[in-house]
Amino acid sequence: MCIMFIYRNAEAKGDTYRIILASNRDESLKRPTATAHWWKNYPRCLGGVDMEPGKEGGTWLALSTEGRFGALLNLTGEKRSTTTPGEGRGYLVKDYIISDVSADKYLANLYEKNRYEQIYNPFNLILVNLWNTHVSLLCSAENSEGPEKCLDTILGFGNSPTGRPLKKVTLGKERFKNIVQDATILDQDKIIENLIEFLRWNEKHLPDPELESRAPNWYKDLSSVFVHIQDAEYGTRAHSILMVDGSNRLTFVEETLTPDASWKRQTFTTELQIFM
């Protein structure tokens, strides 16, 4: 389970924000992972990297200073038409942010590639153009009609198709909106702390028939924005916050859960390098 919220404002000026994004990564606590860093072979790209044997080099969330952002969310409980093992989905994000292909073309090609053979296990793939706030989504659920544009000011994504949102996504959008609306760069430190607190929101949002149908054995534990299932050694192990202001200044904050159960924070700042 993972969750993501996005605020978009194409009219942002220098002291306001064009994009604010907040996300949790939920994963097995034992899965080997490299925390966010600038990639050696692609120095304009920033993100964590999967180190799971056989899936090394993929990522769940990453960006490039050329204005590309991508994130991958699992579609819990979604059927797949084949029993053959799916290819690693983490490369879907990586391949996009290191490319020079538009989000629309990338998702259209991926849709055609995956729609009949279902090469990958089900996913929501979210691509964001950081300098014009365009957000595009490809949901690989059965009967998906292909890539879609996401035009709302406040967006929320979880582990179900956007047309059938989980309750924690719907309620989370309202709390997220209250944090980011009317935000200015003078408020940045306060916004970051408020978003971290939001991403640690452990209130269970029940009843949720959609979540129960997708995860009948675990839906109670998965019904909060922040997930912690001690017996399964599974839960939220990373918070990510991305902010881009009207002058193309980018701030990326990642907090990761360490083996001693403390949280380690990294903050990266740079400017987008827009080539038009």
Strand element count: 14
Which CATH-level-2 architecture? 4-Layer Sandwich
Mean pLDDT: 94
Estimate what percentage of residues fall within beta strands. 25-35%
Please indicate the count of domains.
1
Helix content percent band:
10-25%
- Look at the structure and name the CATH superfamily: Penicillin V Acylase, Chain A
Low-confidence stretches: none
Pfam family, one: TANGO2
GO cellular component, one term: Golgi apparatus
InterPro entries: TANGO2
Protein name: Transport and Golgi organization protein 2 isoform X1
Outline of the structure:
By secondary structure, the chain is α+β, with helices and mostly antiparallel strands. The protein is built from five helices and 14 strands. Strands 1, 2, 10, 11, 12, 13 and 14 form a seven-stranded antiparallel beta sheet that branches. A seven-stranded antiparallel beta sheet has the order 3-4-5-6-7-8-9, with helices on one face.
Could you characterize the architecture of this molecule?
The protein is an alpha+beta fold. It contains 5 helices and 14 strands. The protein has one domain (2-271): Penicillin V Acylase, Chain A (4-Layer Sandwich). The chain has helices at residues 90-97, 103-114, 167-180, 188-199, 209-214, and strands at 2-8, 17-28, 33-38, 45-50, 61-64, 68-74, 123-129, 135-139, 148-149, 154-157, 228-229, 234-245, 249-257, 263-271. The strands form 2 sheets. Strands 1, 2, 10, 11, 12, 13 and 14 form a 7-stranded antiparallel β-sheet that branches. A 7-stranded antiparallel β-sheet has the order 3-4-5-6-7-8-9, with helices on one face. Strand 11 (228-229) and strand 12 form a beta hairpin. The longest helix has 14 residues, at 167-180. The radius of gyration is 18 Å and the shape is globular.
